[in-house]
Amino acid sequence: MSKRSAIEAWVDDAARRARPERVVWCDGSEAEKERLTAEAVRTGALAPLNPKKLPGCFLHRSPPHDVARTEKLTFICTPKKEDAGPTNNWMDPAEAYKRVGGIFAGSMKGRTMYVIPFLMGPPGSPAARVGVQVTDSLYVVLNMRIMTRMGNAALEELSAPDAFTRCLHGTGDLDLARRFICHFPQDNAIWSVGSGYGGNALLGKKCLALRIAGFLGRSEGWMAEHMMIVGIEAPSGETHYIAGAFPSSCGKTNLAMLIPPAAFEGYKVWTVGDDIAWIRPGADGRLWAVNPEAGFFGVAPGTSRKTNPNAMAMIQKNTIYTNVLKTLDDGVWWEGMSDPPASGTDWQGRPWTSASGEKGAHPNARFTAPAAQCPSISKHWQDPAGVPLSAILFGGRRARLAPLIYESFDWNHGVFVGSSMASETTAAAAGQVGVVRRDPMAMLPFCGYNMADYFGHWLAMGRRVKNPPKIFHVNWFRKGADGAFLWPGYGENLRALLWALDRCHGKGQAQETPIGLVPTAKALNLKGLDLPTDRLEALLAADADDWRTDAADHAQFLARFGKRLPPEIRRQHQALVHRLGRVSTPAPSTGGAAKPRKKGKSRTVKN
Ligand code: GTP
Ligand code: SPV
Ligand code: MN
Question: Domain total for the chain?
Answer without folding.
Answer: 3
